[in-house]
Amino acid sequence: xxxVTFCSFKGGAGKTTALMGLCSALVKEGRRVALFEAxxxxxxxxxxxxxxxxxxxxxGCSIFVADELPLLEAAYAEAEEDxxxxxLVDTEGGSSELNxxxxxxxxxxxxxxxxxxxxxxxxxxxxxxxIELLMGxxxxxxxxxxxxxxxxxxxxxxxxxxxxxxxxxPLTDSPLHERDAFASMKDRGMLHLNVGKVSADPGxxxxxxxxxxxxxxxxxxxxxxxxxxxx
Length: 231
What we know:
Rossmann fold, 10 helices, alpha/beta, six-stranded parallel β-sheet
């Protein structure tokens, strides 16, 4: 069982959205995925509630509350016993003993950011914190920056500047672009199931293409994760 953690000190960086998307990609490929909800605001539980109402929740995924250390330990033991392939962790904001434990126990760490100076500064602070923590514990865990909400068209001068700066750090193979399909996941459920539902309606061809393009990007992220962990 591999543990993949999404980390960000800043709210609104797209951490939970990226986790939801990766979950859809992995489950679509036949992997069983456990989601550890370490954020006390419980965004993943709300996502599941919305998805179940829309018949867009895949039984290959289960959510475990893990917003306290004893709950985290119990969730890990249960998920491992149940034979899940992956655990995706949605951390709480900032630094804490809980976050430190999750980071040190992970097999892969992903730091999402948007291409704004403020977001990149926060991502760099998160990245620096992770590296210092790992060095202090004498651990080597792959860590990558995930560029989120990247414009589909031409970048502004500011966006190009921060994007060039990020290339000095380990990055996921490809970014996630600014797409309605990503923004609507929290309300509509798992993306791969929505693709299947829309594909059955001939009148939704345009919407289908947008969903399929978003799904292709998530599958690339899934490939990056699996290849990194296998390496």
